[in-house]
């Protein structure tokens, strides 16, 4: 089969680990021809290019800037992406007949591009639903359903529903995601909705004791404390004020250490808290190269997941996978609508509390340090291999198609 994957992501190296690169390599392993349409932002000063990269067909399309730019520029660039992708596919992919189109949210702005290939080739379509937009933006106050911003909401909600309609199948990250989608879009045939979670090619990223000591020394992380690590975005979705409240509550715990690694719109708030109050058991670091970060996670004891309590949509952060590969258990503090806490607890590889009670978080930290952390970390690695492999995602998707 000829497989087309449409994404706004860069996918700079098809051999690098990642939820999408791992899945695409799985398709290649099974004998499919894989075509990827991806973006090149204007600031890179590179034109649209079509070439073969390690046996994969890449069409890298020059678009406007959509990251690290002002809202107006981002908005205009986002609106233009569809027509730029369609123009590039017409020019470079006219001679290829596609059997299956894979695409993800975010963003929801690939509707016309997906429709173009579906109509042209009679291709089947599969949506990998990673984000429920625009409701997630409503939840964190970026837009609203009423007033002037209500126009923005209604526009994107219309696009969202159209994207669902054009999808032959929709893969959701969890059972709660699937139930939410069905409840809020009752016009959809429930038979096209299924669980197809974030997956990876599992790699043992745990550390030996010698490596652990070396890495901790390199980053000035105490060797005699239980280290709780958070890595990833530090923005509104993570509920930074609540994280700061938790750190305050736990500052008297002398046997634990909190390591926060990442960047985002709320990074400065964490930085200001640490500069002002100087907690002795917290370290904040800006984002590291993925390889360095993954090694550092393996030298820690417990992975952290935070989600703002205001969310009504069931998020399921992909950073869970890096903790599982490092064989460390997980402490999640989230809203009650996501089922990530249920999965973690039922899989016996972590703990959960709501992200509106810092005292409950501190209590869970106390429970963690009294638990068999190593055994629970091994449980997570086992669960990863049983439920979250790229091969499993591939089989889920392809069960609907003849090949």
If you had to describe this structure to a student in words, what would you say it looks like?
The chain folds into two domains: 2-201 and 388-398, 3-Layer(aba) Sandwich (Rossmann fold); 209-387, Glycogen Phosphorylase B (Rossmann fold), CATH 3.40.50. 42% of the residues lie in helices and 20% in strands. It is built from 15 helices and 14 strands. It has helices at 19-29, 71-92, 111-121, 135-139, 148-166, 175-184, 209-218, 240-249, 267-277, 290-298, 319-325, 340-346, 358-369, 373-387, 390-398, and strands at residues 2-6, 33-41, 49-53, 56-63, 100-105, 124-129, 169-172, 193-195, 226-233, 256-263, 282-285, 302-306, 330-334, 350-354. The strands form two sheets. An eight-stranded mixed β-sheet has the order 3-4-2-1-5-6-7-8, with helices on both faces. The protein has a six-stranded parallel β-sheet with strand order 11-10-9-12-13-14, with helices on both faces. α1 packs across α15 and α11 (319-325) crosses α14 (373-387).
